[in-house]
From TrEMBL:
Keywords linked to the UniProt accession: Membrane, Transmembrane, Transmembrane helix
Location in the cell: Membrane
Region (Disordered): 340-373
Name this polypeptide is given: Mechanosensitive ion channel family protein
Transmembrane segments: 7-25, 84-109, 130-151, 157-176
Coiled-coil regions, chain positions: none
UniProt keyword Protein biosynthesis present: no
Any one Pfam family match given in the protein's UniProt record, by short name: MS_channel_2nd
Source organism (scientific name): Streptomyces cinereospinus
Biased composition (Basic and acidic residues): 363-373
Residue ranges constituting the Mechanosensitive ion channel MscS domain according to the UniProt record: 179-245
């Protein structure tokens, strides 16, 4: 009877103790989150309650397994399994705690600078994201290495690998050259402030917003909701447009090709009226000028300003559409026309019309009529 009750008491007590401690800790974190709503730390720490309970249960079971004297024939296997679970859950818990601390620090920084310096906030967000990924990768590698070292065979293999680390390092560096270059490019992007999450960029003719940055790739969300994924090394080796660099304010351009009789002064006044009714215009500046002419048309350019790339696009299409509608209604003669009239030939030196090729026309030779007697 004692041999049956002892394992149940030890194992059941260990599991119950772990669950009770985990539940009590979660209650304390919940109360702390309710008392301090200004900081998200306590709420973020609650995300680690599952790995925390796993750590408690695995630790108590690993410590009480010898006292339970259960499955003695499989003592080594059960003990190693509990050790592996303990290592894995501890790594999971460390990752959750590190993510909660980093996210809390970023939230406090962003709340204080979101209005004053949004570009700086996006830069810090990019750095925080990559730092979290690096910490996750380091903890994961250390956890896997610790798990492997629990096996005696792996210890010998590890010693032999360390002995030949120089050669293996060279081979791995050559084999993973592109991967390593992308990783270093990701770190360069994060701390070099080249591109940040939320920036508006133009890459290979695609206009969109940076949606995600990792150590190896970068995702751009285009205006039509597509996702373009590119290696981060592209942004360190090729030129690209970053419309959010510095201030997000932009100047837009609208072109029209009109007839030479178009009322430029009236169009300038109409542009002012259109922009006053357009919410996307920020009111900084506008202008309208004739920038080029051709034998049949002239090129009219309008300039306008907006607070960011989205608003400048909206303002441009609004001005283009309303100006064309106004010209059609009020000044239809200003629209480009195709001349289908017959060409008027220039007079020659003796007042005769020249032929289209520029030569004088031939005079008709009068033929004498036959004498009919």
């Amino acid at each position: 009877m004692e041999n049956l009750l002892r394992p149940l008491i030890v194992i059941g007590g260990s599991i119950l103790l772990g669950l009770v401690i985990g539940w009590a800790t979660d209650r304390l974190l919940r109360k702390a989150d309710e008392r301090h709503p200004e900081t998200p730390l306590w709420g973020l720490l609650r995300r680690g309650r599952i790995p925390y309970q796993l750590v408690l249960c695995a630790a108590t079971l690993r410590g009480s397994y010898d006292e339970a004297q259960l499955l003695q024939d499989h003592h080594v296997g059960v003990g190693r399994t509990l050790t592996l679970v303990l290592i894995g859950s501890a790594a999971w818990l460390v990752i959750r705690i590190a993510a909660a601390v980093v996210e809390t620090s970023y939230s406090r920084y962003a709340n204080g600078r979101a209005r004053r310096d949004p570009a700086r906030v996006r830069r810090v967000r990019t750095q925080v994201t990559l730092i979290t990924r690096v910490v996750t990768a380091i903890v994961g590698v250390m956890a896997i290495a610790s798990m492997l070292l629990t096996f005696p065979a792996m210890r010998a293999a590890g010693a032999s690998l360390l002995a030949s680390a120089g050669i293996l390092g060279i081979v791995a560096g050559v084999a993973a050259q592109s991967t390593l270059s992308n990783m270093f490019a990701g770190l360069q992007i994060a701390f070099g402030d080249m591109v940040r999450i939320g920036d508006t960029v133009v890459v290979d003719g695609e206009w969109g917003t940076v949606d995600e940055i990792t150590l190896t790739y970068l995702t751009v969300r285009t205006w039509d909701e597509r996702r373009v994924t590119m290696p981060v090394s592209y942004f360190t080796s090729k030129p690209f447009e970053n419309w959010s660099r510095g201030t997000p304010q932009m100047t837009g351009v609208v072109y029209w090709h009109l007839d030479h009789t178009a009322p430029v002064a009236a169009m300038r006044d109409r542009l002012r009226d259109i922009l006053r009714e357009c919410p996307a215009w920020d009111g900084r500046a506008y202008g309208l000028d004739v920038t080029d002419t051709t034998p049949n048309t002239m090129e009219v350019r309008a300039l306008l300003t907006a607070k960011d790339a989205d608003d400048v696009w909206t303002a441009r299409v609004t001005v283009r559409e309303r100006m064309i509608a106004w010209l059609i209604k009020e000044h239809p003669y200003a629209l480009p026309r195709v001349n289908t009239a017959d060409a008027t030939l220039a007079p020659g030196p003796n007042g005769h019309r020249r032929s289209p090729d520029g030569t004088a026309p031939r005079r008709a030779v009068e033929t004498p009529r036959p004498d009919r007697g």
